[in-house]
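Run log, item B.
One chain of 382 residues. Sequence copied directly from the ordering sheet:
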Amino acid sequence: MELFDRPNNNAAFKATTHKEAVILVHLNFNDPSFAESEQEFIELVGSTGAKIAEVVHGKRQRPDAKFFAGSGKIDEIKEHVFANNAVLVLFNHDLSPSQERNIEKKIECRVIGRTGLILDIFARRARSHEGKLQVELAQLKHLSTRLVRGWTHLERQKGGIGMRGPGETQLESDRRLLSQRIKSLKKRLSKVQSQRNQGRRSRQRSEIAVVSLVGYTNMGKSTLFNRLTSSDVYADNRLFATLDPTLRRVKLIDTQALVMADTVGFIRQLPHDLVESFSSTLEETRDASLLIHVVEAGADRDDLMSHVDEVLHQIGADEVPQLIVCNKIDQLEDHPARMDRNADGLITRVWLSAKTGEGMDLLRQTLQEYFPENADKYENSN
């Protein structure tokens, strides 16, 4: 059996969560957004179809070096595992490989941290060839730090006739195979990225402006994208419903050369390996002429927007101009569609409902003001 046929944390998660109970662990390290983070965590787990049996809370000044949550809290978690016959414990925190191993040994149950959970969800959602390659690369990078966990054969060396001597430990062999697979994925992604760069350079030569939709996950970006472009990109009321980037032409009255890009939604503490693996996809955002930052009209916008801006900074897109779109006004009472302008008369915010279509004319008007000359440029380039 090869390395990649062996079960790992994510594979076990996929195989069990739809039928078996899981225990969630969310500790408060003096986090002011503790409640919001917990709700997001529950939504993340819920989007997998898992049955949440219990949510374990606790408060600490700092993580415990051995068990992260401390031995007393681990004993409490173990009681919930046995009481609910749970097969998986999910931490809303990133655990070190040694902490995962120590907790698993103590509670006699599989343990997955926040990063492992997000990677599993991304693996479920990816549909395109590029998206699947990107997610697999991120998963393998994460797995490379956790090779020793749960594998009973790792310290045995290869033996047999003709195999005497120092040999190669199974762990070394697995690491070598993992390294080879990562190298192969990077090479395949490089080819895909070259094709994407060709399309980007072609649009730049034609002076076609690209407007990229960004925002926290589940803010309605794909629904807004479909309204603007008359497309049927998959949209659903769940986290990370859309991963694969999509580009479509936007038809406006006077602006013909305008391309809209729909990208993956962001989230708190988006795993670094995931951001790195999706770098070629996110370049559409970095090279855009305008970012439409979609937020929920009735939510705590400043907090969520700060997390999005953090990721934009990571990918070098923090200098791209932003237009704020406050979506889902249909969920608020007495909140009509409108545009907000700054002191210079520039539209900075549009209030609308992508679901009902209310205010979409205002957004089209806004794009018309942002790109008034694109039609002439497009005609001259053909």
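Observations after the first pass:
- The CA atoms of residues 23 and 89 lie 5 Å apart.
- The chain has two domains: 3-122, 200-380.
Flagged for discussion on Thursday.
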